[in-house]
Predict the structure.
Amino acid sequence: MSGAPADDVAVKAAGVSKSFRLPTEQVSTLKEQVLHPTRRRRSETLHALRDVTFEVARGEVFGIVGRNGSGKSTLMKCLAGIYRADAGEMWLRGRMAPFIELGVGFNPDLTAHDNVLVNAVMLGLSPEVARERYGSVMDFAELHEFAELKLKNYSSGMQVRLAFSVMVHVDADLLLIDEVLAVGDAAFQQKCYDVLQRARDDGRTILLVTHDMEQVQRFCDRAMLLDRGRVVAVGDSRGVARQYTQLNFATPAERESIVRTGSPRGPQPGPATIIDAWAQTLAGGRTTLLEPGEASGAAMRVRFARAVSEPVFVFTIVDEHGRRALVLSSDRKPHATGEHAAGDEIDVAVGFTNHLAAGRYWISVQVLDRGGDDLLAFREDVYSFVVAGAGAGGGVMDLPHIFEVMPAPSMQEAANER
Amino acid sequence: MSAEAYRVRGPTAFGDGDVRRFWNLTRTLAATDWKVRFYGSVLGYVWTLLRPLMLFGIVYVVFSEVIDAGRGVEFYGVILLLAMMLYFFFSEVTGAGVTSMVDRESLLRKVGFPRAVVPLSVALVAAMNLALNLVVLAIFVVASGVQPRWTWLLLPIPFVLILVFATGVAMLLSALYVRYRDVRPIWEVVLQATFYATPILYPIEAVIGRSETLATIMLLNPIAAIIQESRHLLTGAMPLSEALGSGALVLVPLGILVAVTWLGLRVFDRMAPRAAEEL
């Protein structure tokens, strides 16, 4: 696993570990060092990264997800050459531009103009090229009118805009982005997406740290899930996003199982267990193929570990782009869902007319308590089915519709007069 | 896109040999430092010259007219100005150098680049200041009627030595300061003390007249030695070897200079790569 990576690999990490010593009492004066040179400083070791191994292909958008403190940012800082890893090796190909802690290291006492020049040089441009690019950086950030304002007078959103703009203008082959898309207004977020999309189309490689699973599914080719410094899963972004969600909602015991096995399976000792879920035809037969326009259905089998009264059942149907196509919840109309004793096993079915556009879909199911506040059980992407037929031009729905073609009213009047 | 894969080894103190990038970074940081310093002042860069000159004016009046420290010393005004400029240069590099790594925290935490760029940019700014000051000094020298002498050609040597020494000390202090915040107050006191323990306000001849041993001890300080030798090269005053009492003793301040600078580089090389984690 060690040694230089293959030609098509842009980022390679093999066995990377990093730990920090956290002194339990902050000792930072010389006096203490001089007076107590032999006193063992009590410190705890925080293992921020343990044996992290992964590869990212050139031109890939690679998501890194994990809960707070899972080591995502430490990993980014090691890759960006800000921290030195304790063990393992990392390889990069091409020029790298980091975007860490929401910025590229601005000086609050300098104007935006000067900061852009300093940081462009920091990120690898020559001062001459940095000056040439300055205009387009400010264009992209839409901050021309504030160019001579000191950065300390910028709002945090403006600073992030400027920083992001610098980063995308330094011609890096490899972008390390830590949580940029969480800030900024919607318009700028969209702009970031567009730019990243373009960067990816240009064959640049992007590593993206994020908490937003929708972003991961929409944007990343593959993703990696970290938990307490360990790699839990590397794989297609849908699967990793699903595991992340499971990890997030899991009890500590379940977390152990997920982390250990890398799989969400294993005991789910919650108040309810979803044994299965599936799509079915009107007649009740399980199917992986739904006909367009037909009466169809989805179902789940649930076992209760304790008595539950009037639970809420939710089916969520997601398309292959991660878009929610349909959410069917039993509390939308008050459905009586009954009283269930511990040990009861029930089937819950929902019927609908299938107006989903042609394509592949996944069913996720949830069981909540009566008020809908407490999640009793959930499973994501339990079952996959296909809706047959020609596509609906990119939409998620294929509703019954008719086209009419006729002359405009003005044309009709003209015809009547004649 | 057929770039070679390269290994990431974490931050380094001195970079991976890309001299061009190192220089680009240093001069860019120095240029912005320079800019920040004079931001919002009407006279701007002129202050770089005016401030030491005004201070010099005060010191000159007090020490030559009131206390009469310069009695019997040839070109007292010129050597006072020379000594003050060199000492201020040293105190500027080291004083600003102490906090330089901490001041650049946001850069260090977000971008990987050779860490030595930070203290070196401080030294570069001070060196530009010194260069401007030397122009003023040259005017003074001519106006005071100092006769041109061939030893002026050797003046760059002590100037380079003080630049190297100041940079080495600044690197040492800046790396230590990241972990030990006591370094700054300690260094401020040290700077104060060395200012008075260096023959700046008073000529070394006055010390020799009182105690030759004391004069020798004072000149073992590399700063004092450099100032004395510059003075000799500029006006033909007593050379360093004579003031020390023995030519061989010149090696002591030189040795201290080399040792401290080497120590500064070593400590910086060891500690600076971890600075981002400790900030």
Remarks:
- Residues 19-278 of chain B form one domain.
- The radius of gyration of chain B is 20 Å.
- The beta strands of chain B are 5-8.
- The mean pLDDT of chain B is 88.
